[in-house]
Amino acid sequence: MTQLYSHPVFLDHDTGDFHPESPKRLNAITKLLEDAEFAGLERCEAREASEEELARVHSKAHIADLLAAIPERGQAALDPDTVVSPRSGEAARRAAGAVCAAVDAVVAGETDNAFCAVRPPGHHAEPERAMGFCIFNNVAIGALHARVHHGLERVAVVDFDVHHGNGTQAVFVRDPHLFYASTHQAPFYPGTGARDERGLGNIVNVPLAAGAGSTEFRKAMSDEILPALRAFTPDLVMISAGFDAHRDDPLAGLRLVEADYRWVTEELVRLARETCGGRVVSALEGGYDLAALAACCREHLRGLAGA
Fold it and tell me: For position 306, what pLDDT does the model report?
């Protein structure tokens, strides 16, 4: 069984009429989920993350500064890319809280796996810096929640967003019991994710050149990331599920197709069954062509449900 975590407030995170990370993204996913195919998904309301949960990744001073920057009306910019509006603070807390709640449910055996349809995304958010559309680092907060609250020692994040998850890597890089692996376009924003960024041997980056497609992506996963993940023997597998490596995405230059997302999801679910009782929590990151985003989410959910 797969649980779905979301909340209406994610639509109230208003980034402006021309911003690519817009409420239309979640509307596209919501419309997809009206299909009869997904009637069996258990729908769960994303709760707000507590300050204690957020502070496992971000300092309390940084959290306070971020929330103080939320405007009472209109919009404000945390950096040139990251726009906030009056309800963005709640949306960001619920995006992180959704991942923590999904971890709770998966670890408790209430569901096989979970997908968190959240915004704002999180993988660029560093411990002391919001950036790249991201406010709090949702997957990193979830990973440390799994460790502190549930005693899971070894947590892995696999990130197939077209952009490198610099924030998640920054949180994980000095902890050998946290594993981060990423395929991403390079050279590209945010400029991190070189092969030689290996942390303590717990970081695996496989940069892909612009124009790379299914063959290169599947080879990166099959030859490098999946073997390293298996050797890590995780207690929980988390996914930073960005769909902007799709060939139709307007912000990048990789050439993945919908079937690639079904394939990689099935591979990760199978590996999780081998190593950690099938525990998988996935969180939405990027994906900016609305039709491609919906189609890729469809295949990702099929992979979670049917692998």
Answer: 82
Strand partners, 156: 179, 237
**Are the CB atoms for 17 and 74 separated by under 8 Å?**
no
**Domain 2-306 fold:** Arginase; Chain A (3.40.800)
The overall pTM is greater than 0.70:
yes
Whether residue 187 is preceded by a cis peptide bond, meaning omega within 30 degrees of 0, is yes
Contact 66, 130 (CB under 8 A): yes
**Which entry of 7, 58, 123, 124 is annotated as an active-site residue?**
124
pLDDT in tens, 136-145: 999 999 999 9
Of 245, 240, 166, 238, the closest CA to residue 213 belongs to 245
Cβ contact 234:275 at 8 Å: yes
Please name the residue ranges forming H helices in 152-210. 166-172
How many residues comprise the chain? 307
Cα distance between residue 19 and residue 29, in whole Å: 18
- 179, two tokens: 């594993």
Told to judge if 123 belongs to the known catalytic residues of this protein, a careful annotator would answer no
Is 211 strand, coil or helix? coil
- Cα separation, 35 vs 275, in Å, equals 32
Q: Mind listing the pLDDT tens digit for each residue in 1-45?
A: 999 999 999 999 999 999 999 999 999 999 999 999 999 999 999
For residue 231, count CB atoms less than 10 angstroms from its CB and return exposed for 0-12, middle for 13-18, buried for 19 or more. exposed
Which residues fall within 8 angstroms of residue 55, CB to CB, at 6 or more apart?
A: 63
Residue spans per domain, the chain:
2-306
